[in-house]
Design brief:
The chain has about 475 residues and is an alpha/beta fold. The protein has helices at about 15-20, 40-45, 50-65, 70-80, 110-125, 145-150, 170-180, 195-205, 210-215, 225-240, 260-270, 285-290, 315-325, 330-340, 345-350, 360-375, 380-390, 415-420, 450-460, and strands at about 5, 30, 90-95, 100, 135-140, 160-165, 185-190, 215, 250-255, 275-280, 295, 340, 355-360, 400-405, 440-445. It has a domain at about 85-110 and about 225-420: Rossmann fold (3-Layer(aba) Sandwich). The model has no long low-confidence stretch (mean pLDDT about 95). The structure holds pyridoxal-5'-phosphate and the ligand N[C@@H](CCOP(=O)(O)O)C(=O)O. Pathway: Amino-acid biosynthesis.
């Protein structure tokens, strides 16, 4: 399998190189040259497979010659062994139509672990025999940071620099990152928003001098391998609910558009998906884009679902390029200059075939947390509640099961959950003494010069 940039002006790479590269050198995102496709029989044969084995079947077409099936199986087994639930991503039924897909049983209690546990192992595998140390630069609104740090802390030949918006992540999220004191882990709280952090990360890749001195890589969903691993749970859930014979809908709390784009990829690969419901909080650029074609940024508003406080959604570029049938460099350059763009008719109509969207206000989010707790006994986090609120009012036919992706453990957002439900969720015992541990991080302005100087002082340059 070969990978092309959404902007059409970067080298075409294989899976290994695309995993190590992260962002394409033309500022675009790598996408596979074609979507692999499964027949109905092949999908039906996934019924009853373990999570790790489903992962092997779904991801094998993407890895090309860079991993054998046996190597991929060994990596998946190792990655998913660390999950606290035997099903890895269990389904929980809420009522006749609604289900939760609990994606938070990994080491850091968010869906990011599903992909990042694997990505850490892929980095290790692909770096064997290489003398160029990897400098991972990442931006987080709270969850990617801890999952990525857990996946690479202490690994030889890798340094990770993780930028989070100061004061805009929950205390548990911050502590999960800043209490990891391994020497290769560097946490930076920036004076700005997640969008500022993400823009700084992209600017580092696009700076020829900086990216020439350090071998940069990415752990955000700009890295194709992240999304590839997230495609798996759409198959895993759907076949358990009657797929491929019965189409299933998914409601996805959305920020950077990675998780829901993985659902789009699953549909492209042949999985019958009735609808993908894109649920946003008041930072609703994706809802506006999908409902009216207006993709224009506003000021990021801090909310009780901080991981979705995002305006510039990186992976939307992948969708727009796929719907346009090729590179969209000009459209993206226009967006970067004006911070606004209109979708073309083809993009709008193409998206409407599979996606619907909804903006969920804080009261509706709280109501969804209350409903889940009172009616089903499930304690859900604010992000999952945004997905569930959208699912319950999507108006889909009653015979279509709707799976809401439960993207984080409620204890990561205990204050918000307690405010809504009166019930305070507790951190699982395996996180132990998180609140007592020593923290280490630096605070920097959201300035390219300041951040690259900080990293350059600490990272190991290419030999
Ligand atoms: C808990 C949680 N829910 C939802 C999202 C949104 O997912 P995505 O950015 O893939 O759209 C995030 C952040 O990525 C998150 O951390
Ligand atoms: N919500 C995310 C934001 C980054 O998203 P990613 O999927 O691109 O890594 C977070 O928690 O950091």
């Amino acid at each position: 399998m070969r990978y092309h940039s959404t902007r059409g002006d970067a080298p075409v790479l294989g899976f290994r190189d695309v995993t190590l590269a992260g962002l394409a050198s033309d500022g675009g995102l790598y996408v596979p040259e074609r979507w692999p496709s499964f027949s109905t029989e092949q999908i039906a044969a996934m019924r009853g497979l373990s999570y790790a084995e489903t992962a092997v079947q779904v991801m094998l077409p993407f890895v090309g010659d860079d991993l054998t099936e046996a190597e991929l199986r060994a990596l998946c087994t190792q990655a998913y062994d660390r999950f606290a639930h035997a099903a890895v991503t269990p389904l929980v039924q809420l009522d006749a139509q609604n289900w939760l897909l609990e994606l938070f049983h990994g080491p850091t209690l968010a869906f990011k672990d599903v992909a990042l546990q694997l990505l850490g192992l892929l980095f290790e595998k692909f770096l064997v025999g290489s003398d160029a140390p990897l400098t991972i630069v990442g931006a987080t609104s709270g969850d990617t940071g801890s999952a990525a740090i857990d996946a690479v802390a202490g690994r030889h030949g890798v340094d990770i620099f993780m930028l989070h918006p100061k004061g805009r992540v929950s205390e548990v999220q911050r502590r999960q990152m800043t209490t990891v004191l391994a020497p290769n882990v560097h946490n930076i709280a920036i004076e700005g928003s997640f969008d500022d952090a993400q823009a700084l990360v992209k600017a580092m890749f696009n700076d020829a001098d900086f990216s020439g001195r350090f071998r940069l890589s990415a752990v955000n969903s700009i890295n194709w391998a992240r999304l590839m691993a997230q495609v798996v749970y759409y198959f895993y859930a759907a076949v358990r609910l009657g797929g491929p014979e019965r189409p299933v809908a998914f409601a996805v709390p959305t920020g950077n558009f990675g998780d829901v784009f993985a659902g789009y990829v699953a549909a492209k690969m042949g999985l019958p998906i009735a609808k993908l419901i894109v649920a946003t909080n008041v930072n609703d650029i994706l809802h506006r884009a999908l409902s009216s074609g207006d993709y224009s940024t506003g000021i990021v508003t801090p909310t009780a679902a901080p991981s979705m406080d995002i305006q510039v959604s990186s992976n939307f570029e992948r969708l727009l390029a796929d719907l346009a049938g090729g590179p969209i460099a000009e459209q993206m350059r226009g967006f970067e200059a004006s911070k606004a763009m209109r979708l073309t008719n083809a993009q709008q109509q193409g998206a409407a075939a599979l996606f619907v969207s909804d903006r969920v206000e804080p009261d509706d989010m709280n109501e969804a947390m209350r409903w889940a707790y009172a009616e089903t006994g499930e304690v859900i986090d604010p992000h999952s509640a945004i997905g569930l609120a959208a699912a319950r009012r999507a108006g889909l036919p009653a015979d279509v099961p709707i799976v809401t992706l439960a993207t984080a453990h409620p204890a990561k957002f205990a204050d918000a959950v307690e405010r809504a439900t009166g019930n305070r969720p507790h951190i699982p015992a395996r996180l132990g003494d998180l609140h007592e541990r020593q923290e280490r991080y630096d605070v920097l302005p959201a300035s390219f010069v300041a951040i690259v100087a900080y990293i350059a002082e600490r990272a190991k340059p290419r030999p």
